[in-house]
Inverse folding.
């Protein structure tokens, strides 16, 4: 009985966020057969970001959703195909890499890992129990349900501050719970001050989030500790923006080396410790976690992949 | 057989266009309820889905049975509209 050969591609890109789609623009323009695999939404975190002010070429800023849609449109214009599904494992079979996916096995001569990251959870009681029914991680998705309601936003970085400001278009008031001090950029902190002065947002520094409490199936308050004292914040909902978690679990045991925080290591060619497998964007160790740099890394990785496919040697550097 | 598909959406939701794109690619018509424009229907979406989120896709069959899919979940959406 003949074994069916899995589908073969020149390049399989794992992910369809800014790094992946930027790489796909380059590879497909050069007629390199390219398939992208995405398990969530094309555009990645950019797609669920309310407004992007720091991506070059948009003097007034751009809606994250629009930016992501344009990334996708441009890649598809040159022939990129995005398959919705998940890559579960990568195996090195020499000239070919075998990918186990939710659509079956596939083979690729080169692979680009561009899986990015997802929003972290706080890890407190009540968080999982009330997920999507009072606890949320996407302001643009779920903010509309909190018109004229009170909200708690947890986090002190750029995402927390930006999304808290976005949520003021719905919420009557927001308590921003910051574990220590605000780490958001000066530009965002300057913008935030207007909302503080208007009374729409109250910043609670040195405040940990300890528990999310509900009654009758809805969230009613958040318990925290501020400067050593127990505090309570009545609320109708909680939005969590406490950092990013790399999407690298599927690489455990693959032989592709990760750093101590589970980001993928690479050399100056953006090649991982598996020959023919490259990495770009937020999932790469040393990345700067910006849409602009992810797009740049995607383009760089695509050029390195082209060199690799042309037979220009890229020995793995351990 | 599908009698009606209704999608509850918001203007800024990234997953909502994906559901619409999928249904469009399948040649399936749907009614859209934008909850930014129709906030009075939020309770309806919540009652159907049990979740304060969008997209919520309600597939009504010809026998009037309903299947409710929360989020962009092709593994449930695809068989529901088949």
């Amino acid at each position: 009985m003949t074994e069916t050969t899995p589908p073969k591609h020149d390049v399989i890109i794992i992910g369809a966020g800014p790094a992946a789609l930027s790489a796909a623009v380059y590879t497909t323009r050069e007629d390199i057969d390219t398939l992208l695999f995405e398990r969530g939404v094309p555009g990645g975190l950019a797609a669920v970001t309310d407004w992007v002010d720091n991506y070059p070429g948009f003097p007034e800023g751009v809606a994250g959703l629009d930016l992501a849609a344009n990334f996708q449109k441009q890649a598809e214009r040159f022939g990129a195909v995005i398959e919705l599904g998940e890559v579960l494992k990568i195996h090195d079979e020499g000239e070919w890499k075998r990918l186990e996916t939710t659509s079956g096995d596939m083979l690729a001569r080169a692979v680009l890992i561009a899986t990015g990251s997802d929003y972290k959870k706080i890890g407190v009681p009540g968080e999982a129990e009330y997920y999507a029914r009072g606890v949320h991680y996407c302001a643009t998705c779920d903010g509309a349900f909190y018109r004229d309601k009170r909200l708690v936003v947890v986090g002190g970085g750029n995402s927390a501050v930006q999304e808290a400001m976005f949520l003021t278009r719905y919420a009557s008031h927001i308590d921003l719970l910051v574990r220590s001090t605000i780490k958001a950029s000066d530009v965002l902190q300057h913008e935030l001050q207007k909302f503080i002065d208007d009374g729409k947002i109250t910043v609670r520094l040195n405040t940990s989030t300890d528990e999310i409490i509900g009654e009758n199936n809805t969230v009613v308050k958040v318990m925290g500790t501020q400067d050593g004292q127990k505090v309570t914040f009545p609320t109708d909902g909680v939005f969590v923006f406490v950092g990013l978690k790399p999407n690298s679990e599927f690489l455990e045991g693959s032989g592709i080396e990760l750093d101590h925080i589970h980001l993928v290591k690479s050399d100056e060619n953006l090649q991982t410790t598996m020959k023919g497998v490259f990495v770009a964007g937020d999932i790469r160790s040393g990345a700067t976690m910006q849409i602009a740099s992810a797009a740049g890394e995607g383009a760089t990785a695509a050029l390195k992949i082209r060199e690799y496919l042309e037979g220009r040697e890229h020995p793995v550097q351990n | 057989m599908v009698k009606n598909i209704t999608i509850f959406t918001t203007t800024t939701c990234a997953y909502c266009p994906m559901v619409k794109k999928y249904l469009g690619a399948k040649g399936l018509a749907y009614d859209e309820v934008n909850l930014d424009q129709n906030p009075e229907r939020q309770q309806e979406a919540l009652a159907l889905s049990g979740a304060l989120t969008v997209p919520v896709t309600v597939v009504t069959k010809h026998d009037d049975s309903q299947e409710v899919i929360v989020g962009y979940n092709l593994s449930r959406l695809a068989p529901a509209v088949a």
